[in-house]
Design brief:
Distance between the termini: 31 Å
Structural class: alpha/beta
């Protein structure tokens, strides 16, 4: 399940930072940093929100809303993000997620006020997710886009890994995911050149999956819904199971993945959905 578990990585990173500041080993049994310390630091970095809307068809829309800073993540947004992700994880009717930014901008990464506290976000959700890229997806925002299962772009938008320009490399897992998406050579080109990736180039190298016709917020969001609908038809139990087996096949060893697939198959075999489909005598052509 690959979509969003940012908070755990933030927690781990900040523990290491705080322990280093205290000149203590991260393996010390004397000094321990708890989650409350992390939360307290993030709560001091105000601004923006993460807005979540769930529809009756099992598709959620999550909006990164911090337009005065080009939708950069603040500390409180990280906490808000964690809470929204946990809500989606427990949404049993959920099948799909559209991640977007407010005011025709996707995301510019981390608010500079919070950059020391916000490192290594990783996305994990049992929903099929798409990043709807309107406007700019820069730095950490480009990394967040790669954390989704699919990426859709509107005309005039761009994805750009600008890390080199500020003396950094991706720290949110973006480089690793980028290599898996577009290959070693293309990933090296994008990271070492900080090149702007427009929709045509993104489609050509396999970074994005579709160029949307509409450029306005309402129209592009409807297009994204229509695009996602083709993959989330059916029961939420089956869609989430499919996501699970595909992700485990990519991330686990073959032996572990085969075991996981067998277990998940067992949860569906003889289930109400399976029995209903068999009773209908569905034929395939």
């Amino acid at each position: 399940m690959v979509m969003l578990c940012i908070y755990k990585c933030v927690l781990c990173t900040m523990r290491k930072q705080l322990l280093q500041q205290s000149r203590l080993s991260t393996y010390s049994s004397v000094y321990r940093v708890n989650e409350g310390d992390i939360k307290g630091k993030l709560e001091q970095l105000h601004g923006g929100s993460i807005d979540l809307r769930k529809d009756q068809n099992g598709i959620a829309t999550m909006t990164i809303n911090h337009p005065e800073r080009m939708n950069a993540f603040s500390g409180t947004m990280m906490l808000d993000f964690r809470d929204k992700v946990e809500e989606l994880e427990h949404w049993t009717n959920g099948k799909g997620l559209i991640l977007r930014g407010a005011n025709n901008t996707f995301c510019s990464g981390s608010d500079l006020r919070a950059v020391k506290a916000i490192l290594n976000p990783e996305c994990r959700l049992p929903l099929i997710s798409i990043a709807l890229v309107q406007g700019k997806a820069l730095g950490g925002g480009a990394e967040v886009a790669t954390a989704c299962d699919f990426r859709l772009m509107t005309s005039g938008s761009e994805i750009r890994f600008v890390h080199k320009l500020v003396g950094l490399v991706p720290g949110w897992g973006g480089a690793t995911r980028l290599i898996k998406l577009i290959g070693y050579r293309n990933a090296l080109k994008l990271l070492s050149s900080a090149q702007r990736v427009d929709p045509a180039m993104g489609l050509n190298i396999g970074l994005i999956d579709e160029i949307l016709v509409s450029s306005n917020e309402e129209g592009s969001l409807q297009e994204a819904h229509n695009w996602l609908n083709q993959y989330v038809r059916g029961s939420s139990q089956v869609i989430r199971a499919i996501k699970n087996v595909v992700v485990s096949g990519r991330e686990l060893s073959q032996e572990e993945s085969l075991k996981n697939e067998k277990i998940i198959f067992g949860t569906l075999w003889g289930s109400p959905g399976n029995l209903k489909a068999l009773a209908q005598g569905i034929k395939y052509k």
